[in-house]
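Final report, closing paragraph on structural work. Over the funding period we assembled a curated collection of sequence-structure pairs, and we close with a single example.
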Amino acid sequence: MRKTLSLTLAGVVLFGSVCLAQSAPESPPREPAATISCAGYDKLMADLDMIGELSGITKLSQRIDKPLRMLTESRGAKGRLALATKEPWGGAFVVVNTLLWEMYAFFPTTNIGPLVELAKIRAGSMATEQNGVFMLPFAGTTLYAAQNNQWAYFADSVRTLNAVAPDPRVFLGDLPKRYDLAFRLSFRKLPQDYRNEFVPRLRESAQLCMEQMEGESDEQYAARLNLLDHAIRQLRYVINDLDDVMLGWNLNTKEKSTHLDLEVTAKSGTALAERFAQIKGGRSDFAALLSPNAALSANVLGVLTDAQAGEIGGALADLRQSAAKEWEKEGLSENERRAASQFLDELVGVLDKTVKNKKLDAALSLSVDSTAATLLAGAKVADAATLDHSLRQLAANSPKDEKAGGQFHVKVEPYQGISLYAISFPTPDPGLVTLVGKRLEIVMGVAGDKLLVAAGRDALPRFKEAFDQVRSGHGKEVPPFQVRLAVPSIASLVATLSKNKRIKAGAAMLAGFGITAGSKNHLSFTLTPIARGFRARLEVEGGLLKMLGKLNQLTGWINLTGWIDANGM
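Its predicted structure, as stored:
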């Protein structure tokens, strides 16, 4: 018996195989607590063609659509798959009480026969029909199916069928237009008992995955556990303020790109809604640093809550201790270590004041090629005068001659009315030498309330170039948070620096396929505000998808052709 992509159509049907209810008298439609949305048959077929193109398979949709139709006809279905191909499919989960969920799936068709045949083929058994309701035995339970106007419904009980919405699209809203596939959970429609149990269950699941990693110190492991525990405790306070959580995926067949969105909203008038209202984009003084040609670029802009400021303050204290321990290993003289320690204390103090000010504006970019790596970063800081004074003291305690300085050297250079502080020391990792030279140079400068840093190859000229751009610019609009990676460049960097042979080989292979991607080779994560909440988007550009497709054709990681042939398509 063929068990083909009937799973694509019948998969949503079969989520009703978890039978929780018995038949009951007819009841009015209830608004679901959770919904599943599929954009429709036409969009699914277009997605399959794009996936096939990336995998080296032409007209993939035809290889699946034709056998699927023939399969149902050969089993005696009355008519072809009579789906309204532009209408959405979906599923709904309705909370009856704290012990009972009801579930149903719906498809846009006036002829339920072919869909019943698909379910029968998957179940491997005969269906019975009574008063227009089909009963399909499956895995020890029963699916119930019926035609209702322009829709075919599959449910876990007759009672559920009697309570479905006449037009289920009303529960999907705009999800089918925005996403190929989406899932939305409405927390406000969950019983309080469900919400009370959510956090303890999440904690149990998370702890199962929190084993100490290879090479992770006990201190690092403890810090990671504390971070997880804090995040879960914070979740306990916000769970009752949540409104909707939505996860949506879309494949853009025109741009040949794809993205995955997470949208979270809060109930109006809640503390969480006020917190989400602080997530805002705006003008950043450091937007000029976000080069489209960078291997890595990122920015953050916004206002911290008191809790967030406290968390970051604690992380800065931990960073101070870790840095002090690392410097003890570098063989610095007593004077150098004392000067460096004083500077670090004052730097952390300035950063702590900046965090307590609770206003963030910062950006960075990393440029990488086969022979050079340069990092640029900028941020608004509180008490910039103290930071400039600390840098001047650090320079005063540094040997005047770099050769005499040995491990650590600082020189001062005037530029455009400010002082530039060029700090250099032996490159700590031999793998970095080809990218930054034998000595790592870090250039820092303070202008007004702005701190600018450049590190790596050609740090001084790159600093001056970036400083001119930042000073002359009037700020550009940026989202509250974004990270953008040029994957081939990052893979090349990993291949250069990694000491793990398997990681090194895999990264080198990925970097080698970078020419396939062209300029659209980015993976990005962006946070943007929406009404009473935020949207977090993970996006993969078309060139990167093409690169991954070519890599898959070579390695056979996902053998789509073999799967199709094995299933008789």
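Confidence is low (pLDDT under 50) at residues 1-27, 74-79. The chain is about 40% helix and 30% strand. We thank the funder for supporting this effort.
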